[in-house]
Amino acid sequence: MKLLKVVAGLSGVAAAAQSPIALFDNSAEATRIPTSYQSAVMGRRILGLSKLATFSTVFPDSSSHESDGHHELQTFERRPDGLGGLPIGLMDYIADCEDDGNPTILAINIGTSFKNVRAGSNITLSLRWTPPYPPAKRISFYSRLSAYIPFFSRDCPYNTAPERSGTPDTVPYSAANLPRFSLLGYLETIDGTESTATDLAVCYTKKHRDARYWLPGNRIHESEWMRLVVTHVYWIGGFGDRAYIGWIPLEEWKKVTRAEWESIQLPGEKKGWSEWSVDQAGEL
């Protein structure tokens, strides 16, 4: 009897070592992985719907910028020594006002990210999809494992639902199973007519009402319209057995039309979605 339990246990471990698709769904539909272009369509929808991104830049080497006033700026900010070459990621506002895959940015010159760029830093914008609704039902990974590993009891503490508390769960879904990506490129000033500036202001403040206080020409902060000119796109669509992970060719990113990204839905845009569904981005 003990021998049988050992053999069963080893068999369970071997089954659990398979890819997650073998544990969750073996259907042909579930094994379909989106192409890089389908992923580009999803990415453009995320960009079109997103309000926030993380701007990643690198602090300049203070010793090489003392002549251009950087030393005085560092003193004014009380910036610690030794930051040169270190990366920093900060949240900032974005919009998709030009609808060509290049995020629109209202750059406030006093902002750390923009100062770093002026000092020579590269810049990357990272975005992720945050569903507005929680999934209809959470599926426990460990409850699936217990079916394959006899000694992995359903009463295992790892498989126990968390106790309810007065604080709402701010991530009531598997974030690792949702799309996120980074846009690599460079900042470029948007030069245009007064009507162009008006169009940008209307588009931008539809997403960020408070931004009207620091539009170009305001009395608080010096600011200007800029775009991130995208040169590379790195995509993680979710779990690798059911989502594309890798670089999206730039020509595909630029090729996506508004009609295409408006025709799909991302997971969680409607109530009642299935957390583990591979076909949750609509019919691409």
Automatic annotation (TrEMBL):
Signal peptide residue numbers: 1-16
The UniProt record lists the keyword Phosphoprotein: no
Domain CREG-like beta-barrel: start-end pairs: 38-254
One of the Pfam families matching this protein, by short name: CREG_beta-barrel
Keyword Heme appears in the UniProt entry: no
Keyword entries, A-Z: Signal
PANTHER family for this protein: ADL397C-AP (PTHR37273:SF1), CHROMOSOME 8, WHOLE GENOME SHOTGUN SEQUENCE (PTHR37273)
Name recorded for this polypeptide: CREG-like beta-barrel domain-containing protein
Organism encoding this protein: Tolypocladium ophioglossoides (strain CBS 100239)
